[in-house]
Amino acid sequence: MGRTLAEKVWDDHVVRRAEGEPDLLFIDLHLLHEVTSPQAFDGLRKAGRRVRRTDLTIATEDHNTPTLDIDKPIADPVSRVQLETLRKNCAEFGVRLHPLGDVEQGVVHVVGPQLGLTQPGTTVVCGDSHTSTHGAFGALAFGIGTSQVEHVLATQTLPLAPFKTMAITVEGELPEDVTAKDLILAVIAKIGTGGGQGYVIEYRGEAIEKLSMEARMTVCNMSIEAGARAGMIAPDETTFAYLEGRDHAPRGEQWDEAVAYWRTLRTDEDATFDREVVIDATTLAPFVTWGTNPGQGAPLSSSVPDPASYADVSERQAAEKALEYMGLTAGQALRDIRVDTVFVGSCTNGRIEDLRSAAAVLEGRQVAEGVRMLVVPGSVRVALQAVQEGLDKVFTAAGAEWRHAGCSMCLGMNPDQLAPGERSASTSNRNFEGRQGKGGRTHLVSPQVAAATAVRGSLASPADLAPSTAPVGV
Amino acid sequence: MEAFTTHTGRAVPLRRSNVDTDQIIPAHWLKKVTRDGFEDGLFEAWRKNPDFVLNQPERAGASVLLAGPDFGTGSSREHAVWALQNYGFKTVISSRFADIFRGNSLKNGLLTVVLPQETVERLWELTEADPETTVTVDLVARQVRAGSVTAEFELDENARWRLLEGLDDISLTLRQEAEIAAYEAARPAFKPHTVQV
User: Fold this and answer.
1) What is the pTM assigned to this prediction?
2) Domain at A5-275, CATH from 3.20.20.70, 3.30.499.10, 3.40.50.1370, 3.40.50.1970
3) CB B78 to CB A145 under 8 A?
């Protein structure tokens, strides 16, 4: 019988298969950052173990790093200790590290792909749930806990329980004003935050095939918000074109050999999925969240739902609690929700394409009075590219703050946070209570909606804005 | 890892679904570089509310958490498991756990038990009616017992054996050195490397 993409990649990494045991899988690439690794290195040290494959391991600093004054010592002493701990651990165990200030520094899930390390048919892990991002290349990529980080450091393998397969087929073409972010928010609203539990999702269909690599990464990134173990997209010409010539992409004969293998990484015609979901791309529209989990979302043109409309008791209670926390009332038009802060960035939407699309909306326009807009590139390389294209000037001219690379306000581990009661439109991935700062309220949006919201001061899409004053053709 | 065979304790009924790991342990706690000292961060935001169930005096010393569906969603932070353990929880019961959280819990000897939602509801009712009710989670018999409730649960045999014996995963894997080395020797040369060695 035929196999799915996920099953092919899994099978190619089985080191050991034995009755009554989970498969032992080889890990091709292990990404590290400062937050989930210190206790793992400690474990190695206590057991007298080394890092088995430093040549398959790479670290960057992202969660704690400030986005201002990066040339000065980090003000928060606890953050500073954590970053210093990573530096000491990487030096002691011989792991390649891109620290704050390095040209390859950035959000771990932006750095891996841009270096060409994330490749089709590889297994990629990181102590971070958004590792699912790398599935955009046809890699089997998933987040792990610190015990597993230690396991991979020591053995370059992981024992893993079997998974189920789900196909999400997005038929037809996305309307012009609909982005990958709108698509994935709509998917999560449809299947729920637990809908993907136990599954590796393969996204397929015409709308997916037409997405750029950046957009595919946005989709796969948020697979975890549907509870999935991983999200994947079959590699194709778009994938190969993105990879060719990157620092760690194969070259010469090895490139040809790799591409020949990568072309085999497609779900067989006669393969079956454990669950199939079909979505009509043509029915989608700009999408935003109103609640406190990523499944609580709706089209921007609609209203805050009435909790009483939910048949399921636990969903109803969750909606009631969410509205209370978010300070919203049922029936309120989503477009009437005013925000204090707009955040563009994160491993979901902090890539060059995301910055380009936000800048295109801001060109010739101004951030509304009383609204603070932060633009945080996903990596130093993304920042340099944006500067080369003049995007930083567009942002600052519009009144937005252009910051240094990192995770920033996505999770507020650095000083970039919401104050209690403050409301944001954020291109990040989680609208959990307090995620962006204690008492902060988050609406998840696409970069285009974020930029339009910054201009209008309330949730908006570019279509809601008065014509730009920018000269035609800019 | 500490072995888990059977545990009996009083319970905390947590009537909430989708309790994400940001609620279990907020991000600012993640700056610590140890595995202990997370108990005060557990459910930090909710504990500011005096009505929150964990703040009720009769719940002091409880060691069984009875959670709503989709417990532990979101981030992969193992700190969520450590926070629950540091606080004194030995086991968590829910009708559905997020995958990464579940994996993390079992690697640390925090037994996460999946029971049907209607059974969780009955346990909620029992332990709300009488906070002195004890819940027994018996991994040997794969059974949860409390008052009139007796419920069987499933856990794959390998995970159960590791928990019962308190086995260290890394030591077990390192016994497979020959197979790992053989796999490494056969890997294609085009696979990526972070550094030349």
Assistant:
1) 0.96
2) 3.30.499.10
3) yes
